[in-house]
Design a protein that fits this description.
Layout (H helix, E strand, L loop, with lengths): L1 E3 L7 E2 L2 E9 L6 H10 L12 E10 L2 E10 L6 H4 L8 E7 L3 H5 L1 H12 L10 E6 L12 H10 L4 E4 L8 H29 L2 E6 L2 E7 L6
Parallel strand pairs: 3-5, 3-6, 6-7, 7-8
Antiparallel strand pairs: 1-4, 2-3, 4-5, 9-10
Protein name: small monomeric GTPase
InterPro entries: P-loop_NTPase (IPR027417), Small_GTP-bd (IPR005225), Small_GTPase (IPR001806)
Subcellular location: Cell membrane; Cytoplasmic vesicle, Phagosome membrane
């Protein structure tokens, strides 16, 4: 269950978990509009391009738990690269956005993906980091569409990204779903990573009891019981 309600795994802020989300994509694809729609349920047709970076917080509930999403909107122009890339470090979730009526913005998703992987220092591979690809402006007419949903699906499968959907900041279609799905993907990967870490530590005859992201206690095993 997901309800609309504000960087490291398990960090607590007023009993909610703080997650840093970065939205990347070409200028004009609607990154600021997506954030504005999600944060304040507002859409502005005349939204200006972001200069540098800006962020806002929004709290949502996923699976009965509160999560504070710290959403960073980045400038898509190349001249702002030196301003935006330092903020990639410590990101928990990355949203890659393009406009479905702009083929070039879709083609550039790979460039944005590689830029993030490099500057965020992602070492474990694409499939082990919570990426979500969002095709914005789903409200455009069929004659103006330049990227099909099947092309989105195929690209994500080829690039090992499991979460993707089309949205419209203008009509509020799938905007909440995009952010809630990104949290769900984060939680799924975190759970998988925790299980792997548990098995490794168990193999070493040590169990770390982790609660809310912190080591609560350790237990040394008398024998190996995997």
């Amino acid at each position: 269950m997901v309800e609309d309600s504000d960087q490291n795994y398990g960090r607590n802020v007023n009993k909610s978990v703080l997650l840093k989300i970065v939205i990347l994509g070409d200028g004009g694809v609607g990154k600021s509009c997506l954030m504005s729609r999600f944060i304040s349920n507002h859409f502005d047709d005349h939204n200006f391009h972001t200069i540098g970076v800006e962020f806002m917080n929004k709290m949502i509930e996923v699976g009965g738990k509160q999560y504070t999403l710290q959403i960073w909107d980045t400038a898509g122009q190349e001249r702002f690269k030196s301003l935006r890339t330092p903020f990639y470090r410590g990101t928990d979730i990355c949203i890659l956005a393009y406009a479905i009526d702009d083929r070039s913005s879709f083609n550039n998703i790979k460039t944005w993906l590689n830029e993030f992987l490099h500057y965020a220092g992602v070492k474990n591979g694409i499939e082990k980091f919570p990426f979500i690809v969002v095709g914005n402006k789903s409200d455009v007419s069929s004659k103006d569409r330049e990227v099909s949903y099947e092309q989105l699906k195929q690209w994500c499968e080829e690039n090992k990204i499991a979460t993707y959907l089309e949205t419209s900041a203008k009509t509020d279609n799938n905007v909440l779903e995009a952010f809630s799905l990104s949290v769900q993907r984060y939680l799924l990967l975190k759970q998988t990573l925790d299980q792997i870490n548990f098995l490794v530590l168990k193999y070493l005859h040590i169990i770390y009891i982790i609660k809310n992201g912190y080591i609560e206690k350790t237990k040394f095993l008398d024998c190996l019981t995997i």
